[in-house]
Amino acid sequence: MADPPEQIDVVVADDETDIRLLLKLQLRQAGIHVVGEAGDGQEAIDLCAALRPHVVVLDLLMPRMTGFEAIPELLERCPDTRIVAYSAVAGEFARTEMARWGIPLRLKNGDAEPLIQAIRELAGHPADEHELR
Amino acid sequence: MTALGPEALEFVRDRVIHVVGHELRTPLTTVRGLAELLGEASDAELRETLIPALVRNARRAERLLDDLLIAAEIDTARPTDPPQPVDLGRLVAEATIDTPVEVEGAPSGPVLAHADAVAHALGHLVDNAEQYGDDTTVVRFEGGGGTVVTVFETPVDHQMPDLELGFELFFRGEQAVTRSAGLGVGLPVARALARMDGGDVTIHQDGGTVVTRLMLPSAR
């Protein structure tokens, strides 16, 4: 397994501008670098192909192209970019689909710590002991 | 009205809870997260970014609650003060800022209504035009007979099936629940708000154009 990167680069994909603002600030505070923002699945694919981030935070419910629809192409075109799904509601369908793809799913709420921990783990940064919850 | 069976009722209940949960989660997530960041923010520039976003999202959550109360015809959402002359042209201009909706002309005069309710109804009609239109929606005005009509003309590239269904609560047309934001109460809420002030909302398709009309009583 490759050494973990010194800096974790992330693309944030969410159709809500204020959610992207919140994530950018929360991730920056955690020392994670947001290198790009996408408003739908196609933008996420294009940005990840161009920027090659370590991780993409992918909202599942977006207009034009959903996160569900973007996943196969992301996996094919950006095999080095890991995906963490991020959703306001996580019904049985979302849970089953993400489990099938082997993609961690985190619930979109005000507590960013589970998402940050998932990003670190995907980028090869084991969680610090004090971060375990 | 046909009564729904238990399975259909359960399906509707689950859909409503799912959609309301999703729509409330977004502003509440933002409010909580931004409030926590604000508590730790020391520089003025960051605070200037956070505070408007907080207000915007608190207002969005409030609007969702208003929508649900109005949609359910719960009287607590109805204004208790009398209607006043309202500058409809200004409200339309405000509702269409930064949207692909173009305004042509101006209304013949003020309407007699509640400004907040008119702004709320216009917000839903503009949202619908953005979500369902294939090109720029044009807004124009008609008048006469004591009514001022705001006409939304939204180009579409296909026949929209039974537009009247849009007045059903939680109907989201071709926008599957997995694809777009919104409760699916825009048209019924806009109609309920217009009717509170003696007006109405209608919708029909005329060839390649969906025509939505917001009618309000003239103040003149």
| Count of extended strands of chain B | 7
Radius of gyration of chain A: 13 Å
Write down the overall mean pLDDT of chain A. 89
Biggest chain-to-chain interface with counts: A-B, 23 and 27 residues
Shape of chain A: globular
* Distance linking N and C termini of chain A: 26 Å
Strand order of the largest sheet of chain A: 2-1-3-4-5
How much helical structure, as a percent, in the residues of chain B? 40-55%
Name the structural class of chain A.
alpha/beta
Number of strands of chain A: 5
State the assembly state of the protein chains. Answer: heterodimer
Query: Strand count, sense and closure of the main sheet of chain B?
Result: 5 strands, mixed
One letter per element, helices H and strands E, the order of chain A comes to EHEHEHEHEH
Strand content of chain A: 15-25%
**Roughly how many Å apart are the termini of chain B?**
39 Å
Query: What is the number of helical segments of chain A per DSSP (H or I, 4+ residues)?
Result: 5
Could you walk me through the main structural features you see in this protein, from its secondary elements to its overall organization?
The complex is a heterodimer of chains A (133) and B (220). Chain A contains 5 helices and 5 strands. Chain A is of the alpha/beta class and 133 residues long. In chain A, helix 2 runs parallel beside helix 3 (67-77). Chain A starts with 8 loop residues before the first strand and ends in an 11-residue tail after the last helix. Chain B is globular and about 55 Å long. In chain B, helix 2 crosses helix 5 (186-196). In chain B, the strands form 2 sheets. Chain B has a 5-stranded mixed beta sheet with strand order 2-4-5-7-6. A two-stranded antiparallel sheet of chain B has the order 1-3. Chain B has helices at 6-40, 44-71, 88-95, 115-132, 186-196; strands at residues 84-86, 101-103, 111-113, 137-144, 147-155, 200-206, 209-217. In chain B, strand 6 (200-206) and strand 7 form a beta hairpin. Classes of the chains: A alpha/beta (133), B alpha+beta (220). At the A-B interface, helix 1 of A face helix 1 and helix 2 of B.
